[in-house]
């Protein structure tokens, strides 16, 4: 199934573009992609909802972080506003926001599975072919800088990814060789392999340009009770250097609330089992209760996990230190190769704008 890794194992949020700083691809493509996604979902009746979100602060320090988000959003014309305590209490009586609440009215949610099914159908209707369960085992660039790419694939299970290796497959792990006459040819190669994009990068580029992937695993939690309940998404104030945006409250298209993700650094991109560690679970419950004090912790259960493909142990917010942007480049020295690395959040929101950006790199 398409999108069964990062693209479907997330919060399904249409992000507004509040966190990623000036002059970054994440900001540019998130803001553009947000509007493209709303337009596409409206035109083709893909389930989505412009429900908005609140970012809530409980301390003066967190309020200072909100002020920073507000100033940045205003500077790039993303609509935000502070909500009075009276309005907050009236609209979301179950939510605590002791120091302040910032509303982002252009944030929403999308049914990511329906969105991806539409994209796959649109692609195939235009003549595209989707080949699943075909792990790439070897790639030969065009000879002498021009010509065709050759891509070999291995049957599923011949060589599983090795967590300690930056490559999902290596030439020595399976019987595929350049002498095999069964391969795929292409004039253009776009590496958008998500969790395995660094591995594809390392098959193609010289060792001096190899990249090591970092995997930020996030667990999500379901809630078995109808109350407390919200009509909007609730995020805690951002924590500088944190790998995600905190254990936040999101909604699905049926109005059910869920929480997550937390952040756990793992070595294996296949490590998708929810972590039952009691201390991590207690920490998540404490985070949630900071803004949803009426939560019944006994009704919170581990649900599913996702993994962010990161290029370093960087925070989700651009604080000017250690922030890592999307890497989207037409690589020098190899003809017809566009490389996409570190496409984590807001990758889903940005996806249509990323496609347009790649098209411009190739054909402008």
Automatic annotation (TrEMBL):
Its cofactor is FAD. PANTHER family: L-2-HYDROXYGLUTARATE DEHYDROGENASE, MITOCHONDRIAL (PTHR43104:SF4). Residues 154-179 are annotated as: Disordered. It holds the Pfam family DAO. Its EC number is 1.1.99.2. Residues 2-360 form the FAD dependent oxidoreductase domain. Keywords: FAD, Flavoprotein, Oxidoreductase. One of its GO terms (molecular function) is (S)-2-hydroxyglutarate dehydrogenase activity. This is L-2-hydroxyglutarate dehydrogenase, mitochondrial. It comes from Extremus antarcticus. InterPro entries: FAD-dep_OxRdtase (IPR006076), FAD/NAD-bd_sf (IPR036188). SUPFAM superfamilies: FAD/NAD(P)-binding domain (SSF51905). Belongs to the L2HGDH family. It catalyses: (S)-2-hydroxyglutarate + A = 2-oxoglutarate + AH2. It comes from the Eukaryota.
């Amino acid at each position: 199934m398409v999108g069964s890794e990062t693209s479907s194992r997330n919060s399904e949020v249409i992000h507004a573009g509040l966190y990623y700083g000036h002059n970054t691809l994440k900001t540019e493509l998130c803001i553009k992609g947000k509007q493209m996604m709303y337009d596409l979902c409206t035109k083709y009746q893909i389930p989505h909802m412009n429900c908005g979100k609140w970012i809530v602060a409980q301390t003066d320090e967190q309020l200072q972080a909100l002020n920073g988000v507000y100033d940045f959003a205003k500077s790039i014309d993303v609509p935000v506003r502070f909500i009075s305590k009276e309005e907050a209490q009236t609209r979301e009586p179950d939510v605590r926001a002791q120091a302040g609440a910032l509303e982002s009215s252009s944030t929403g949610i999308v049914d990511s599975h329906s969105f991806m099914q539409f994209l796959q159908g649109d692609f195939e209707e235009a003549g595209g072919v989707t080949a699943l369960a075909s792990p790439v085992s070897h790639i030969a660039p065009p000879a002498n800088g021009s010509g065709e790419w050759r891509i070999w694939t291995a049957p599923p299970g011949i060589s599983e990814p090795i967590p300690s290796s930056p490559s999902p497959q290596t030439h020595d792990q399976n019987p595929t060789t350049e002498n095999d006459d069964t391969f795929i040819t292409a004039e253009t190669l776009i590496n958008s392999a998500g969790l395995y994009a660094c591995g594809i990068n390392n098959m193609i580029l010289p060792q001096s340009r190899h990249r090591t992937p970092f995997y930020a695993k996030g667990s999500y939690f379901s809630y078995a009770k109808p109350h407390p309940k919200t009509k909007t998404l609730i995020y805690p104030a951002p924590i500088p250097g944190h790998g995600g945006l905190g254990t936040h409250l999101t909604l699905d298209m049926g109005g059910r609330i869920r929480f997550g993700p937390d952040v756990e650094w793992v070595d294996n991109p296949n490590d998708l089992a929810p972590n039952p560690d009691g201390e991590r679970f207690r920490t998540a419950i404490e985070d949630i209760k900071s803004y949803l004090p009426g939560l019944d912790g006994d009704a919170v259960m581990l649900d599913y996990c996702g993994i962010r493909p990161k290029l370093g142990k960087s925070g989700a917010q651009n604080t000017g230190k250690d922030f890592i942007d999307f890497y989207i480049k037409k690589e020098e020295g190899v003809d017809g190769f566009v490389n996409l690395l570190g496409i984590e959040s807001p990758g889903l929101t940005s996806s249509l704008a990323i496609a347009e950006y790649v098209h411009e790199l190739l054909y402008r």
